[in-house]
């Protein structure tokens, strides 16, 4: 592992000086500079993950090499590429749209009425200038902390771009807010951050889309999303990952749910080469409900390692998780999920289901659904099933005149339909159906 | 009212907590090194290959770190253990010849009576050595061999050498290396082709001395088309210091054969029970593990079946009960390495009085193991709000043409069920007892009647005082 | 002293008041039918009488042979001769019907340390199975697990026959049964009444009057919204069959509007319990 650090040092970019330069370029206040430096020190101090660590047994940590490192936030110049313009326009009338290209904001809009009602929806740099207290209070302080892992520390030291969504108490936003992250510079290292602060009784839907056109040189993404729901808040969060195959990503999405909150989250994993994502819900207040959905479709040699945690810390909490992974060609998916019910978290309902569909010879799906239960008055179940395409279903469809390819596609769509039926966002649904279709043909 | 010792164990409740005065032919000093291993080998007058095997295993044991997953093993002081205790000069075939004090122990445990009544053969191990092994004549005539493993090494050296360590190599894990270095006793079972031993063989393991380590080694070979049911039971006295039991069991189930291995583990609650059990199943062979864990301080035991040829089947039935101060970490592994192999795992665990029980398992499907099926079901019952249940299944599936399911539930005893039983006049504690017995019934019903009764009795004992 | 006396019983479930001051007196040898629309509190009353922990008594008392019934655990109530045939019997996996029955009968008959001898139990069981025309194989299955609705109800009656209660509450035992099954159940109950020679009292809770053609009640009570509103003789059941709950409700509302004070109002052979 020391070899990797050596490589980074040679690249001349990932150094303490680079951290200072980054902070200076954005003219950050002293506290943020100090925060970055402390995180940098934590990064230097913390060990690299080893293949023998339980969490890294199935994903080679060496994949996340930081060769040729180039923390982003630089202007690419010129007009926006047509693909990006199309990607930005794809979302019909969002309440707000934030578009970042290579970590630099290129478009930001927010419904004027919402802006007047105190909603903040902008990149982190702008938020740091305009709402410093908000960031000082919430940015990597209570939800995800820099010292947790080497990658989180690195993220805290080098974050750029990012998105902040703040919904004041009682404000309800019906249309979705969309944050689009676009990467088209090869060989970049990016550290996208999403910070959601939902005030008491507020309601919002946030869609984050990570997209990049096919590229040549490896891109490393180290992402963190923090979602905090104050009492009674209701948030829907869709995380759409459509990276090009040159991207490797390690990331975490963690949500903390206070009393009587509802979080409905959907993770969609379609792109990237090697992607390791943690999705964690901490149910901290009684009456909290967390729906956690996951849709992963891997083809070629894609590798998805998904680790979920349903952490019940309070009584009368509900979590309901369903992850569906399909793998094709030589792709591999890993679902490892943990339900942990703490002492005293009685009257808890915790459900976890993982369904895997193996579409080709050579594809792999691992499933590790774990339970750690320290309360007795609860309902807790988990289930996992892995199977191939059902030949009888295929035969039935083909007997009605469908080609084998059409039939397979229909069965795969059916496999994911159970998930998509639970996400009432029509545009998203048709978009995902198209992408699943493309994957089937590829 | 019984005096509760510092471990929080009520000696009155654990029926087998008595111990005999220590009277040994030989007692090694505490601790483990090359000298001890060579002494064990020479006292047993073993062939050179076994001596070398032991020393190689010791080296591996010394180099290998303790596993860091699962339970905390750091409390075990491997230097504070007696690795070899020889209770008697000779192993006997008649209970009359077994030394009086040892015989009394086994009489109290009901072994000779069970042997007369319903066993094809019985073995008894006391500390490091087997003191009794006997197979009824009718089975001996059919060529069945049932010996302690030391005797087997002397009397059937070729068979032992052919199979010993082939299923669980000494490098497999730290505790397996330890056993491979200092093993003593255990059973050797050989069932010739086509022979069905239709009543069980039983071995009983007893630790008596304080700070004792028991390291039996069992090897079972089922020739094609044969059948055997091997049952083991175990107990130990309660001391204030911990004992260590670390066995290795290797089973070879050849074409079309079937082997069932049943354990009723009731070590005292100061025993570390760290056991490696593994079977290889060939074409159309069936291996069944029935594993009941009630005793011990900590049990880590994951009976495994490697299905290496088409049509092999595995079944693992596991019951665990963890009471105060106990951590039961049992489970199972099914390895599908050939097409059309099938496995079923059913686990039932109960945690009470702050105990921790659960299931840890692996389903592995290798590429090419087409048409394989695996179904795992884990149910846990938590009887109070201080206890804990863990489920850690892992499924690694590298083949497309498979059907794999895993289901788990964690629940408490439902108030509705309790009320229903009580509304018929059944008292609260008995109602609780019935529900818990019903919970484990799918596994208990797989046991021969005598063991089913024993297991239910042990569960009833554990359940005492559940409803305040 | 009445055998069962319910006074002003008020009961809630999870902070919702279901039963709002019920009064009833029932003696051995009597059959009381308790009728009412769904959700009127009939099952709540049955469950509370047996001590179901889900229900909390807020107010009132119940005397069983002069003693405080509510202070007794459910098993004690059962051992003293109270019985309930549940509307929805729960299943208990892994526990066979026969071992459950033997334990329960032993408890009722005062076998303290040991169970009733197998031979004696088997004889009793066979007799009751024959009387109720129940397939003997069913008792080797797990308690209510995988039973059809009809099987569950018949097994409740089998338990009643085995336990020989003094006061039995039958909670909609007829619902979900076809007419032949209703008749078998009713025959069984009538046989028990005859055999008990005045030592069995029944509170027959039902939604429909159908079963009352087979088991003749001495009294009929009607509940609405957690209260007893009308009591009468067997005629009341017939009247209900004619006019439905709506008809009775209309009569009650007229009387309640006329009468200012709370209490019993006798009209047309019925007693209306007015509460304001």
UniProtKB/TrEMBL annotation, chain A:
Coiled-coil stretches: none
The organism's place on the tree of life at top rank: Bacteria
Domain SUF system FeS cluster assembly SufBD core: 185-415
One family name in Pfam for this protein: SUFBD_core
InterPro entries reported for this sequence: Fe-S_cluster_assembly_SufBD, SUF_FeS_clus_asmbl_SufBD_core, SUF_FeS_clus_asmbl_SufBD_sf, SUF_FeS_clus_asmbl_SufD, SufBD_N
GO biological process: iron-sulfur cluster assembly
Domain SUF system FeS cluster assembly SufBD N-terminal: 115-177
Family: Belongs to the iron-sulfur cluster assembly SufBD family.
Name of the featured protein: Fe-S cluster assembly protein SufD
Annotated organism of origin: Candidatus Segetimicrobium genomatis
Chain's gene name: sufD
From TrEMBL, chain B:
Domain SUF system FeS cluster assembly SufBD core, first and last residues per copy: 205-439
A biological process term (GO) from this entry: iron-sulfur cluster assembly
Domain named SUF system FeS cluster assembly SufBD N-terminal: residues: 47-202
Highest taxon listed in the record's lineage: Bacteria
SUPFAM superfamilies xrefs: Stabilizer of iron transporter SufD (SSF101960)
UniProt similarity note: Belongs to the iron-sulfur cluster assembly SufBD family.
Record-given protein name: Fe-S cluster assembly protein SufB
Gene of this entry: sufB
TrEMBL record, chain C:
UniProt keyword Nucleotide-binding, yes or no: yes
Annotated ABC transporter domain residues: 4-250
Single GO term (MF): ATP binding
Keyword terms, alphabetized: ATP-binding, Nucleotide-binding
Keyword Nucleotide-binding (UniProt): yes
Pfam families hit by this protein: ABC_tran (PF00005)
SMART domains for the chain: AAA
Gene3D superfamilies (alphabetical): P-loop containing nucleotide triphosphate hydrolases
NCBIfam families: sufC
Family: Belongs to the ABC transporter superfamily. Ycf16 family.
Protein name: Fe-S cluster assembly ATPase SufC
Organism: Candidatus Segetimicrobium genomatis
Gene designation per UniProt: sufC
